[in-house]
From TrEMBL:
Species per Swiss-Prot/TrEMBL record: Helicobacter magdeburgensis
Subunit structure: Homohexamer.
Protein name according to UniProt: GTP cyclohydrolase 1 type 2 homolog
Any Pfam family matching the protein: DUF34_NIF3
NCBIfam families: YbgI_SA1388
Family classification: Belongs to the GTP cyclohydrolase I type 2/NIF3 family.
């Protein structure tokens, strides 16, 4: 069944307003025209060359990660993202992205409530926040790994900022948790500086980890892909409830893992 791109854009706007995205983000209509008439919908975490090549003509692609993030000074069709743009244009395809606006409206809550199973956590700024039964950082990391069905997670123990006073007893015991999907360690400065607190996010850089550690904040890196892969099932359900059929294009984790075993 044919539909106007504007219909889907308006649906996106109604459930996750684009003006709620972060100032640096590029959510919204990345490619196409509101007047485009399309016949297929594909939902994916992000567009890859393989997905683009397998699209049917007149397809609307809905992604979490925007295709165009930085200003283009040239269209070099052998380089990203122009190589993907050229494929979409040849097939009369369009692309809408819902990124940080969707994190705030749906993805953070879904990850925290449904996957990590902390249903009592509440939205606070960009984070989901809640208190848990005190547990060791290592045990908390293991719980996260199991619930995400991840191959591994890494964690960083916050330093004792109170220098072995009574306040710092059971330093490894985590009581308060902040969760943000994707790459959220740059937001750690928004978290109150106190012990027994952990931020769970992905893509933690070494220097950001060292800053958080020095401030007494513990971290668990659950992986970027592992925390955001649920976008496709959430959005497919939204479209189905609105009467649209959508195909999920499986964007696999681009990272492979190897390990040494005894």
């Amino acid at each position: 069944m044919a539909f106007k791109l504007k219909e889907i854009y308006d649906l996106c706007e109604s459930i996750s307003p684009f003006d709620t995205q972060e100032s640096w983000d590029k959510s919204g209509l990345n490619l196409g025209s509101f007047d485009d008439e399309l016949t297929h919908i594909v939902v994916c975490l992000e567009l890859t060359l393989d997905i683009a090549r397998n699209l049917q003509p007149n397809t609307l692609v809905i992604t979490h990660h925007p295709l165009i993030f930085t200003p283009l000074t040239q269209i070099h069709t052998q380089s990203y993202p122009s190589n993907l743009i050229s494929v979409l244009l040849r097939k009369n395809c369009a692309l809408i992205s819902l990124h940080t606006n969707f994190d705030k409206s749906h993805l953070n809550a879904y990850l925290t409530h449904k996957i990590l199973q902390w249903e009592h956590f509440v939205a606070q700024d960009f984070f989901m926040y809640g208190e848990i039964k005190p547990t060791s950082l290592e045990n908390l990391a293991l719980q996260v790994c199991q619930k995400l069905q991840a191959k591994a997670v890494s964690y960083i123990q916050g330093d004792d900022i109170y220098e072995n006073t009574q306040e710092s007893s059971s330093l490894d015991s985590i009581k308060e948790v902040y969760v943000v999907c994707g790459s959220g360690c740059s937001l750690s400065s928004r978290i109150p500086q106190k012990l027994h607190t952990c931020l769970i996010t992905g893509d933690i850089k070494h220097h950001d980890a060292m800053i958080a550690k020095s401030n007494g904040l513990s971290l668990i890196d659950m992986g970027h892909y592992e925390s955001e892969k649920y976008f496709v099932e959430i959005f497919q359900s939204i479209l189905q409830n609105a009467g649209y059929n959508a195909i999920i294009a499986d964007c696999k984790n681009p990272f492979y893992f190897c390990s040494i075993t005894d």
